[in-house]
């Protein structure tokens, strides 16, 4: 996931290098957000997991130091008005006391004031104890923008923190991570010899990513394995083609269109439009939407995709800390409306993928097959700052059309099918096979009166 809100008044745009711009021709959602860039990336791929639904924008909030400098120490408060009310038991002089002490007496001189400054900002956000709220230095913010465009250098795996443990959310298809055998749910115990216990996502991202041709070593623990093992991965340029389409025939002879969405990036809406036209041109009996290992992406792209099944319906809601609720409605052509549909999901389906899956499930437009999804249901505001750095801050929770919160819970499929070790080794896909079986049995939503599958298959 990613939605950009705009504050009243004149705003200074973020540097182009740090904040990706969306194409012109914004639609109803963008109007709701005062023509802000809509994206919702839950994970990104140079080994990063930058999750959630984001609002991003540049805001001119840089404060100017006071011209009145003390002979003993710098001005205590950069901008008193910006601080608002401060509890009486908090003394901001302590910050400057520590700042001066470190600058003057730390054993290894000189001390980088820029590092101290950015470190303080990182620490302030880290104190929220929220893995999805981070302060990004200019280089990291710039790399984040590149990732949203679908091309970057790295290993091609999304990572996230779940139950306090750094883990692989999803390796991208045909990526170095996938070729090295990484799977969703693999826990990362160390990166190039550094223990990941307590490591923040952005720190892990900076250690895993790097120039193509270089090698990173991960210590991996897999739930069904006896002990951790090392995986050496050579970084490469990753190009994410967000949409792939093909036609297949079920054992019962039905012609089924299969559309895979790997990530909701800048190209997804146009590529998905092409895929819809291609599938409908083949007179399909049904559609399979493959959202497995999809980490999310632009919110408006996710809403566009859902809009091919439901017209003028609520696709997702967001609920803020103040209790306000905003609805995002589809305004697509609903060309797949009424067509039997299966959505394939797994533990690597997150954020934007969960928005689409949850909406189609709530609205009875599709049957979900596979495994419980990742469970990323929070909303981040992504603000580009004047120096090229950025703040990603959790500001809301998103809900399905029926008001379900999936955060840390995920979405349960209607038909649960696991992929086990033997399936990986034999290149079998029991989830796809189960979808074909449902089509042949005519038990796929939204057939009138058709029962929703609820059984579990091991």
Explain what you see.
Among the domains are: 141-239, Pdz3 Domain (Roll), CATH 2.30.42.10; 243-377 and 397-457, 2-enoyl-CoA Hydratase, Chain A, domain 1, CATH 3.90.226.10. A hairpin with a 2-residue loop joins strand 7 and strand 8 (194-195). It is α/β, with parallel strands linked by helices and 458 residues long. The strands form five sheets. Strands 1, 2, 3, 15, 16, 17, 20 and 21 form an eight-stranded mixed sheet that branches. Strands 12-13-14-18-19-22-23 form a seven-stranded mixed sheet, sandwiched between helices. A four-stranded antiparallel sheet has the order 8-7-9-10, covered by helices on one side. The two termini are 31 Å apart. Mean pLDDT is 80; it is low at 1-78 and 449-458. Helices cover 24% and strands 26% of the residues. The chain contains twelve helices and 23 strands. The protein has helices at residues 28-32, 80-83, 93-105, 113-126, 138-148, 176-179, 201-208, 268-280, 299-306, 352-362, 421-426, 430-440, and strands at 37-41, 53-58, 134-136, 151-154, 157-162, 165-171, 187-191, 194-195, 215-221, 229-234, 236-239, 243-249, 255-261, 286-290, 296-297, 314-320, 325-329, 341-345, 367-370, 378-384, 390-399, 415-417, 456-457. The relative contact order is 0.16.
